[in-house]
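Risk register update: the risk of archive-format incompatibility is retired. Evidence:
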Amino acid sequence: MMTSSKVSLVDRAYHLAKGRILSAQLMPDSVIDENALAVELGASKTPVRQALVRLSSEGFIRILPQRGTLVNRISANDIRHVYLLRALLEPAASEIAALKATAAQIAYLEDLDEVFQRSDENSPDLDTHSSIHVGIAALAGIPKMTKIIAELQDQMHWFLSVRAAEGGPLPPRHRHTELIDAIKSGDPHRARAITEESISRSRTQITSQMAEEQDYGLLTGKSDTR
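Archived output:
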């Protein structure tokens, strides 16, 4: 049985490594140095290895016997699947949120959106952007759906960070005011429609850019295979 301090070290190792993957500080195919992580945490390699097993189960890394631990690649097909699932879940979450959100919860979303708007227009704050979408999902009060949407937002964050690091364009920063206002006014149909349109627009932008890059030979095999 693990002690609370050991669990805390596993969580710290997990969030440290995951944060560096999502922000593309650790790029696809990078080697994760267990020893360096353990030293940074002031811990043994045991909690680091447990954290890496968790990241492997979530698809962020692959652990290769005798070769080490490598960051996975996120492919064009992966992101198409993410958009498909987002289109199924996030509109429903927005619809339910419009029926249940409290004034305090809406104020929190508005504050997050203001933070997001203060980020660089061409390099938006992806952490805060994900928090807005997960925050809306949480208002629906369905923990399993919130968990899945949070995982999908992690995948989006990871993909966009890697894309930016490789010199690819990102979707322009946008406001969430219209969606938050629909939730605030208790209009579930409008909240659903706005979410559907936003996901469709983002998917079209990203997939069109990827198709153009593939046509011109800019999208390499490193982005399309695991």
